[in-house]
Amino acid sequence: MTVLDPIAPTAPAIRTDWTRAEIAELFALPFTELVFRAAEVHRAHHRAGEVQLATLLSIKTGGCPEDCGYCSQSVSAESGVKATKLMDVREVLQNAARAKDNGSQRFCMGAAWRSPKDRDMPAIVEIVKGVRALGLETCMTLGMLTPQQADQLAEAGLDYYNHNIDTSPERYGEVITTRTFADRLETIDNVRKAGINVCTGGIVGMGETREDRVGFIHALATMPQHPESVPVNALVPVKGTVLGDMLADTPLAKIDDIEFVRTVAVARITMPLSMVRLSAGRESMSEATQALCFLAGANSIFTGDRLLTAPNAGDDADQAMFARLGLKPLAGPEPLRAGCGCG
User: Fold this and answer.
1) Does 199 participate in catalysis according to the annotation?
2) For a Cys-Cys bond, which of 17, 19, 100, 150 suits 190, CB 3.0-4.6 Å?
């Protein structure tokens, strides 16, 4: 069956052998047809009308030695972000408790490191255990991990590790020079071998071509096991960053909404069981655009006022949007973690 054949209403087979040509063909479908197909795939595996709420906290901000062109926390950026030390464990747990009270199911924590030092691991382990004890899912992004560090996080009970591939393999070196695409895949492999669920996605709207977006989805959808969570970010151009300054006041400073929805839809079709999360950039999207993303298969969002150092819509705005759209927070387990493909 080619990708242009009608998708059956029953759950299609999970594939990890997608070709770039097939993914490009999906991107090129008429918009309404693409969204319809993505909605069918979504409903075959997920409960329609339920969206997972997650909260993201920066537990160590700024001072990162990496030169990621999009990031305000890089030492190479002139963004005004000040470097901080690792947050106190009690303060992290207080933030996690507030997130749970506001309806979040998952608590995600980010530290601006190239990789954690071994001396940092005891505090990180204590944080993971404390957040899990509150009844929240845990996710961390700490940079590159050794196999031993991944094992420590697994023993602490970490549910997810986020390590984005950012963009296509071909464009990666134009965005980041202090590490390689292969370095990213190595950490993802270490995380997977340790038994931790994988959260990996990237950023669109960095001046890339559609071919790059095809390559980005292809890299994710052909992993031996699909990521349990796939965040799709829209670039927030920050003054003082390489990309923020390069794209400022140009038509490329914001990705076209329809193209963004197409990216979400193709991610849903190629990775049916993954949680597809609307991440950074959502605060600049209209409710209509977000609604199209939910229709196209996005079923997770970051809620709260901030995402690391970027602004976010906020809990009140999200509650009002959910009420207007008739959505409700996800209560049950994600399909890939539940071990089944039924919705």
Assistant:
1) yes
2) 150
